[in-house]
Amino acid sequence: MSNGLAWLLVLLAGLCEIGWAVGLKYTDGFSRLWPSVATVAAMIASVVLLGWSLKTLPLGTAYAVWTGIGVVGTALLGIALFGESREVARLVSIGLIIAGIAGLKLLTAD
Prior knowledge:
The protein is mainly α.
């Protein structure tokens, strides 16, 4: 598998990570069937996609990027969907996570 495809899989896995993290909010403790099914499906897809990417990419970098995508996306959707805090310090912290993800990606040989 090419590095480009592997990184695409990490991106898709990260998006699934966001999906299941936000989906947890809608499952109501896994008491609602369809949100629960969608959340579990996103969990499985996220881990499988990450696993496939690890055939090519270094574990530490791929995992950090995957979780970073999930953290940033979930935090931003928490702000947009659930009215979570928009404090400057929080937004700066999210920016620092993005900088870390970009740095890890740039420092990983393609």
